[in-house]
Design goal:
Layout: H1 2-11, H2 17-35, H3 37-66
Helix pairs in contact: 1-3, 2-3
Length: 70
C-alpha cells in the first residue's frame, strides 16, 4: 500500500522529484536531438520513455524507502 500512496503523491504534485526528473529527461532529449538528429529519429521516443520510466521508478523507490515502517 505504501507504493500506491507514494505514487499518488508523486502524480498529484506533492513533491518536486517527478517534475524535475521529467524536465531533466526532456532537456537530455533536446540535447540528443541537437547533437545527432539521425539518432534522435531512430531512438528518441524510446530514450524518452526509458528516461521517464527510470525517473518514476526512482522516485517511487525513494519515497517508499523514506516511509518504511520501523
Amino acid at each position: 500500500m505504501t507504493v500506491l500512496r507514494t505514487l499518488r503523491k508523486l502524480v498529484l504534485g506533492e513533491t518536486w522529484t517527478l517534475p524535475l526528473g521529467v524536465l531533466a529527461v526532456l532537456l537530455a532529449g533536446v540535447a540528443l536531438r541537437a547533437l545527432d538528429a539521425e539518432l534522435w529519429r531512430e531512438a528518441g521516443g524510446v530514450a524518452l520513455l526509458a528516461g521517464v520510466v527510470a525517473v518514476l521508478l526512482g522516485a517511487v523507490a525513494t519515497g517508499t524507502r523514506r516511509r518504511a515502517p520501523k
